[in-house]
Amino acid sequence: MIRFRLPFLPLALAALLAAGGAAAQGYPEKPITFVVPFAAGSATDQIARALGNGVTAETKQPVVIDNKAGASGFIASQQVAKAAPDGYTVLITTNTTHAANEHLFKKLPYDPVKDYAPVAALGKGGQIMVVRPDFPAKTVAEFVALAKKEPGKHSFGSGSSSSRMAGELLQQLAGIKLLHVPYKSNPLAVTDLLGGQIDMMITDTATGLPQVKAGKLRALGVSSAARSPLAPDVPTIAEAGVKGYEMGYWFAAYAPAKTPPAVVKRLNELLVKAAKSDAAKKAFYEPTGTEVFTSTPEELAKFQAAESQKWGRIVKAAGIEAE
Q1: What pLDDT score does 11 carry?
Q2: Which of 35, 194, 195, 301 registers the highest number of CB atoms within 10 A of its CB?
Q3: How far is Cα 92 from Cα 100, in angstroms, rounded to an integer?
């Protein structure tokens, strides 16, 4: 039986490739929807809009931004996982949905590997530790001292896994105990921080730095290994006294599983070109201090696997039990 079936395999493969090629011809022929797991104004929303403008400029097709915030990215991730695999629904997301969630939750309503076709890495960024201007601590060292004096009294908010893990890592390395308050997105947490409902948060630079520059929040430190060129006077959290501290986040694009390889390839080309464009650099990358970090679909798959292992180690070290 095998002897008779083998000759048909090349024909079947050729037919499959031809079908994928046909699907990519003329793509895109209608508007593309970028589904974002976080609220408008978040860093992920900002990069989606900047890249969407680039894709539109290249293809003349509109890109619709669909913000589906909440449930740690579950809503947006499910929507894309169940969408038609035709390249017209794309998840613009972060390590929250595709590296951290599988370690923070016992059961996900989506599979971060099997349910998606990796398209492209889009960028890397750092975070900034902020408090209200009237908060007693004016430095990281003073915040740590205050938290040690009053364990469990002071709170930190987070609207993404990166933000949460940044706070958890601070507790772990500084030997302090804080009250964690979760939010659907970082901008919502910043609103409560401004209003005095929480005491501190470590948020993406795109969300936090504008509030610092406006004088509404005070920056205590940045989470990256080096100081941010956008805030050179703000020390890293590590140099401010928490030795070994470093935390960041990344952006990437995913299509539904079974999207034709030719369509994925075209999407990759469009997004990478948009990310490297002067327009995107001026609109998003440079103002937010985000590094342009792109990849092939295959490179993103490998990067995601490595990142998942890393986030698993962070969650375990922080002693967080899956919900």
Answers
A1: 52
A2: 35
A3: 16
